[in-house]
Amino acid sequence: MNGVFQVDNLSKAFGGLTVSRDISITMKEGARLALIGPNGAGKTTFVNLVTGQLRPDSGTILLGGENVTRLGSVRRVRKGLVRTFQVTRLFSDMTPEEHVTLTVLQREGRASRILSRFFNDSAVAGEVESLLDALGLLEVARRKVGEIAYGQQRLLEIAIALALKPRVLLLDEPAAGVPQSETPRIEQALERLPPSLAVLMIEHDMDLVFRFARHVVVLAAGEIIFEGLPAEVAANSKVREAYLGSYANARQHA
Ligand SMILES: Nc1ncnc2c1ncn2[C@@H]1O[C@H](COP(=O)(O)OP(=O)(O)OP(=O)(O)O)[C@@H](O)[C@H]1O
């Protein structure tokens, strides 16, 4: 059976440097896939290719069976392929409530009207409240983003992505830059993502990867070198050599 998201033989080179070589991935509804690999393996490039920020040299991207390979990024988002970024792209003077309200209104094509009217729109307000609640952000809903913790800013990015009603969510290092003390918040939020949503996560924090993922794909030098269950990936010698060695050793000696 085809998945909700299917990538076939995606390839991309920058000059002489191949950064994606024949990458194929299938995700079904409810998938929890982690894409891991050393720095420069091509993980972010892969996300840029599938979301339309970069054009592949060859390969196909299917969303719900529809070929979206030639669509621009905005149309892919409208069709339910949504990403977050490694580094936050938020407005420090706006509140989480304002960010998510704007996103819901944008999705509905209502963002260009006078915003203040919509803060009284009960349907929009209800949706915004439940999104912020799901990400544990209600208590800071009306604080300026520049004043809230970095982990909460990262969670707000996920709330914004969810406000776009994705079918497939691509998370680029959701815990990057987040202090250790705040990672449990990120973990809890990831556990509470809608069960039917297909989620692909790039992440270097292996504890988070192994708690979140039900399937792991390992990239090295633009190629998939292994994929399987988290336990299989951790035990694979090729993967340990390319990437996990230091992590596995640290765990052994911890
Ligand atoms: N626009 C570009 N032009 C040329 N080379 C690029 C471009 N974007 C990325 N690269 C190169 O492609 C390779 C893959 O980079 P990419 O950022 O996808 O890796 P990554 O696995 O996401 O790394 P990290 O874990 O450090 O974020 C790197 O060698 C990078 O220097």
From TrEMBL:
GO MF: ATP binding; ATP hydrolysis activity
CDD domains registered for this protein in UniProt: ABC_Mj1267_LivG_branched
Keyword Methyltransferase: no
Keywords: ATP-binding, Nucleotide-binding, Transport
Keyword hit for ATP-binding: yes
Gene Ontology CC: plasma membrane
Domain ABC transporter stretches: 5-246
Pfam family, one: BCA_ABC_TP_C
InterPro entries (alphabetical): AAA+_ATPase (IPR003593), ABC_AA/LPS_Transport (IPR051120), ABC_transporter-like_ATP-bd (IPR003439), ABC_transporter-like_CS (IPR017871), BCA_ABC_TP_C (IPR032823), P-loop_NTPase (IPR027417)
PANTHER family, A to Z: ABC TRANSPORTER ATP-BINDING PROTEIN, CONSERVED COMPONENT OF ABC TRANSPORTER FOR NATURAL AMINO ACIDS-RELATED
Family: Belongs to the ABC transporter superfamily.
Protein name: ABC transporter ATP-binding protein
